[in-house]
């Protein structure tokens, strides 16, 4: 057999296993997100039942109850507080994860990052184009073109945990990468598309607490040592001030969470007072904040956002007849797999990146269908597009819920069969012949 050329072997496999350390880290993240996904679904179900019960008025009264301080542009309904405030915690974690992936994760290599990032972009562009094509003649609904572009990682991982317990970690990593990258794209869309007016003074003032926050987290060991409680006491108020000023500037406040997340160091450096390189503050923050995000912030947002008065079967049918709803369902259920699989196939033809020999294209299809579960960010973009409580927003919510459920069911059909296949070969994946604690499959040539 002819040996591979160096140029050919330099391209990592699509859906390759990657490094063992990365597989362990991603596995830990996904376990936490699984619990969060279950809570998210439960909160959405409770909201739907309450909003369509005889006590529906009390649900909407609670969601629309206003509290806050108007001079700071913070007199908001509880639903708005959940969308603008609690989701900032979620997006802070997105910022941490993005930075960590590109600094120390498998995506720090441009060649490793190229295919999954391109696939994520395809999974954003194609659903948006499908939605736009369906709603081209309606300027009112065309505003919602970005709704079907996002993947809800918590919801998707919760489904994956139930239907795919034996699926290879490479598939889970690929799903997480897709979700993280399209979250980044969604952040950019929120910041640049759905910002109608920018108040320059507030935005410039926001740079002060953001810069101070960045300075402190980069040198946290020098100032705080191991006293993490003192660190939180100082950083939390600074972060809240930065969030409030970004909110007052007219840019959606969740962007503040991402920006602050980007400032946190991923690896320890001499500047932070550490004696040598190692895990940075991002790991500490992620460990402390992810349970708050997955266990409280995102489920509460889902509770206030998923509640919609459907109006029985007739109301459901009427909602799905809205062009916006048709565009959302087509974008999520059809656009996501077409964009992800199509872009990955195209990249395999344009580069020397090949599908790992242990995987099949049907595996990628199943994961890409699962990526059509667009919940948290989709609901947020729907509110930004149409406004809370409007008929268009209610129809969009129904479509997002219906599309997410349909995507989950279709992915279950595909991935359950693949799960049975991988269960039969799972024992081979755990072989550690040399006893070094790392399974042998992570030490082959395809894991470089």
TrEMBL record:
Catalysed reactions listed for this entry: Na(+)(in) + 2 H(+)(out) = Na(+)(out) + 2 H(+)(in)
InterPro entries, alphabetized: Na/H_antiporter_dom_sf, NhaA
Keyword annotations: Antiport, Cell membrane, Ion transport, Membrane, Sodium, Sodium transport, Transmembrane, Transmembrane helix, Transport
Coiled-coil region list: none
Gene3D superfamilies reported in the protein's UniProt record: Na+/H+ antiporter like domain (1.20.1530.10)
Transmembrane residue ranges: 34-52, 72-94, 115-134, 146-167, 174-194, 200-217, 229-246, 252-271, 292-313, 325-346, 367-386, 398-415
Protein location: Cell inner membrane; Cell membrane
Membrane topology: Multi-pass membrane protein
Family named by the database record: Belongs to the NhaA Na(+)/H(+) (TC 2.A.33) antiporter family.
The protein's role, per its UniProt record: Na(+)/H(+) antiporter that extrudes sodium in exchange for external protons.
Protein name, UniProt field: Na(+)/H(+) antiporter NhaA
The organism of origin for this protein: Arthrobacter sulfonylureivorans
């Amino acid at each position: 057999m002819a040996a591979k050329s160096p140029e050919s072997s330099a391209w990592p496999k699509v859906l390759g296993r990657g490094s063992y350390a990365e597989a362990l880290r991603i596995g830990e993240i996904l376990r936490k997100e699984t619990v969060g996904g279950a809570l998210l679904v439960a909160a959405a179900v409770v909201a739907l039942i309450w909003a369509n019960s005889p006590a529906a008025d009390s649900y909407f009264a609670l969601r629309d109850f206003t509290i806050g301080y108007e001079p700071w542009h913070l007199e908001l309904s509880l639903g708005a507080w959940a969308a603008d405030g609690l989701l900032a915690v979620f997006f802070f974690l997105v910022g941490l994860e993005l930075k960590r992936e590109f600094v120390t994760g498998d995506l720090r290599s441009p060649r490793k990052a190229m295919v999954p990032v391109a696939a994520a972009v395809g999974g954003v562009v194609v659903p948006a184009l499908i939605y736009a094509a369906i709603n081209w003649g309606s300027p009112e609904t065309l505003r919602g073109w970005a709704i079907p572009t996002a993947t809800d990682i918590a919801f998707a991982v919760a489904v994956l945990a139930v239907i795919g317990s034996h699926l290879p970690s490479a598939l889970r990593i690929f799903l997480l990468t897709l979700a993280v990258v399209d979250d980044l794209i969604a952040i950019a869309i929120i910041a640049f598309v759905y910002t109608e007016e920018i108040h320059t003074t507030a935005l410039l003032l926001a740079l002060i607490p953001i810069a101070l926050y960045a300075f402190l987290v980069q040198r946290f060991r020098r100032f705080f040592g191991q006293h993490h409680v003192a660190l939180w006491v100082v950083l939390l108020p600074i972060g809240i001030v930065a969030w409030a000023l970004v909110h007052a500037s007219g840019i959606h406040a969740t962007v503040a969470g991402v920006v602050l997340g980007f400032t946190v160091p991923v690896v320890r450096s001499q500047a932070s007072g550490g004696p040598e390189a190692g895990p940075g503050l991002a790991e500490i923050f992620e460990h402390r904040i992810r349970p708050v995000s997955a266990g409280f912030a995102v489920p509460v947002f889902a509770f206030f956002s998923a509640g919609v008065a459907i109006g029985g079967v007739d109301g459901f049918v009427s909602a799905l007849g809205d062009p916006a709803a048709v565009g959302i369902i087509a974008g999520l259920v059809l656009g996501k797999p077409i964009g992800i699989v199509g872009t990955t196939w195209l990249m395999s033809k344009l580069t020397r990146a090949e599908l790992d020999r242990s995987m099949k294209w049907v595996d990628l299809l199943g994961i890409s269908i699962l990526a059509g579960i667009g919940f948290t960010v989709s609901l947020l973009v729907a509110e930004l597009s149409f406004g809370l409580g409007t008929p268009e927003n209610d129809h969009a919510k129904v479509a997002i819920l219906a599309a997410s459920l349909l995507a989950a069911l279709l992915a279950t059909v595909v991935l359950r069969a693949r799960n049975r296949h991988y269960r039969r070969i799972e024992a081979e994946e755990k072989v550690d012949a040399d006893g070094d604690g790392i399974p042998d499959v992570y030490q082959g040539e395809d894991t470089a």
